[in-house]
Structure formats: C-alpha cells, structure tokens
Amino acid sequence: MINSCNHKPSVKLLTTQSLSFSSASAIEFYKDKLYIFGDDATYLLILSPEYKVLDTVHYLPKANGRLPKESKPDIESAMIMTKDGLPVLASVGSMSDTLRWNVIKLSLDSLSFTTIEFFKKGTSFPSIKEINIEGSCMVGNTIVFSNRANLKNQMNYLLFWNGKDAVTTKKMALPKDEKLPGISGLYYVKEKDLLLFTASEEATTNAIEDGEIGESYIGWITNFLQKMNAQQLSADGFLKLLDFDNAFSKEKIESLCVERVQGNNLLLHLVADNDDGQSRIFKVELRL
Predict the structure, then answer these.
(1) Which of 45, 113, 259, 288 lies at a CB distance of 3.0 to 4.6 Å from 36, suitable for a disulfide?
(2) DSSP symbols for the chain
(3) Cα–Cα distance between 132 and 77 in angstroms, integer?
(4) Cα–chain-centroid distance for residue 29?
(5) Which structural domain, as residue segments, surrounds residue 21?
(6) 226: domain CATH number?
(7) Given CA atoms 266, 240, 25, 121 in this order, what sign does their dihedral have?
(8) d(CA 197, CA 218)
(9) Is residue 4 assigned to a domain?
(10) How much is the pTM?
C-alpha cells in the first residue's frame, strides 16, 4: 500500500446489520437517504442512515423471492447523475449476459423510473475479453465503469465514457493476491478528487458463475482527475477489511458510498452479497 501520510490508513467498523433484502449489490447516498439495489431483486430499497426502511420502489413486477440467474437484471452498480438540472439515480446492469444491459434511471424527486440502455446489447469494448461491469460513478462529465477480473481474465479495467463517443479502457493494477481481487464497486469523492473502490476475492473463472468467497478490500486512487490521463492506473492505497474487524470475514463487499467527509475521515456505507440471497450493510469510518 502506498501512502504519504504520517499515519497508516485504517478502517473502523461502527455498526453492521443484516438486511431483509435480496443480494445487495449497489448503494448510493443522497440527502440523508441510502438507496440500495440487489442484483436479483425487483425493487429499490431506501433506508435512513441508521438503516431504518423508509420506502421501496418496484421497477420490475413483484416476484416471490429472488429472480432466477437466467432472468435477473444483474444490477451491480449505481451512481448519481443530473438530467435537466435534476438528480437522477442510475443503476447499471453488469452487461455480462443478454438481459443484463439495462440501466434503470430513477428520478430522486418523484421516484419515477425509466429503463434505457447506455450501449447496444453485444457491444464490445477495447481490451475487454469478458464484460462484467460491477462499478460505476460520475467524474465531472465522464462516466467511469469498472470491469471485474476473474481467474481466467486476470486483469481489472476502468472504462471511461463521455456519453457519446467510444469507450476508452485502461488496466487497473491491484496488489497481487492468490485469489485475485476483482473490483466490485466505485465511488468518486469530488471534494478530495479521490476515487474509492471495493474489491473482493471470488474463485470463479467467468462473469456468470459464483465461486468460493475470499476476502474483501477498500482501495483508492488520489488526484484522480490528473491520473485519468495515464495509460495504466494503479491503487494508491489498498486495505484488507478483515485486518480491521472479524465481522468482514468471508463477506463479499459489493459496493460503497460516502455519507460525510471530515478532513481525512470519511463515513462510508458498504453492502455485501454472499451469493445466498442474504445481504448485510456496514457503516465504517475510513481514515486516510
């Protein structure tokens, strides 16, 4: 891990809670509310910062239990955008299969939604052998996606798209590990020009099948606006969550968001999906 501060970066677990919600995979924070998507859920879950249920918004017909793997939208990431000056929450499918290319755009004022596609089904991206988009965020006018590595395609990528031109792809190097952490979530902290990401170990050789879950991590890139122009990117910091609390053991962290920034302390929320339909949320303080 690379860091120029006098103290070591750290993670402090503040609270954790199980959620009565299927397969949490994406989380965003906006105006004192948390918005959570599940990769095989049919609705959006809205929580208070204390994890009380405030509302639910169905964007697919109600179903009994989890959607089957072959028909789920596989929403793996979400981000806040603006349209006509109004805030929009956009959730993005992984694009790893035919039914997973949809983007669900939810108006945060009216809680109404529309379904679109950023790209035509089957679009290929430079250098990407197997598409598995698991992170997305807005950086200025650019959408940044992350494509998750697996044991067969052993490189994580960041993808950059301005909404109209071709996508640019860049390798994203992480510290080497036997189980190969794959990037699972992105969040851009504008106040600090900091790209945060989550990564997790999963013993699978493709973008569809689940595998044995290993450990999860939080990483970051500082001065991201400048580094976006580099040919290849690498983490400036990378922390194994289990090193800070046993509650993270075998938890597959899928995404993160920031509630508050105070100097070098960031209040974060993380969600985990362990491929069994159960979900867990964590509130942590990240000190950089």
Answers:
(1) 45
(2) ----SSS--EEEEEEEEEESSS-EEEEEEETTEEEEEETT-SEEEEE-TT--EEEEEESS---SSSPPTTT---EEEEEEEEETTEEEEEEEE--SSGGG-EEEEEETTT--EEEEESS-TT---TT-SS--EEEEEEETTEEEEEE---SSS--EEEEEE-SSSPPEEEEEE----TT--EEEEEEEEGGGTEEEEEEEEEE-SSSSS--EEEEEEEEEESSHHHHTTSSSEE-SEEEEGGGT-GGGTT--EEEEEEEEEETTEEEEEEEEE-SSS-EEEEEEEEE-
(3) 11
(4) 13
(5) 10-287
(6) 2.120.10
(7) positive
(8) 6
(9) no
(10) 0.95
Residue 206 lies in a domain: yes
* Nearest partner of 32 among 256, 276, 259, judged by Cα: 259
Q: pLDDT tens digits, the chain, 288 residues: what are they?
A: 444 456 899 999 999 999 999 999 999 999 999 999 999 999 999 999 999 999 999 999 887 778 999 999 999 999 999 888 889 999 999 999 999 999 999 999 999 999 999 999 999 999 999 999 999 999 999 999 999 999 999 999 999 999 999 999 999 999 876 678 999 999 999 999 999 999 999 989 999 998 889 999 999 999 999 999 999 999 999 999 999 999 999 999 999 999 999 999 999 999 999 878 889 999 999 999
- 2 within some domain: no
d(CA 37, CA 200): 18
- By the 8 A CB rule, do 266 and 283 touch? no
Find all residues with CB under 8 Å of 95, minimum gap 6, and list them. 101, 119, 123, 131, 132, 133
CA distances from 247 to 91, 96, 272 (A): 28, 30, 11
Q: Is residue 152 part of a domain?
A: yes
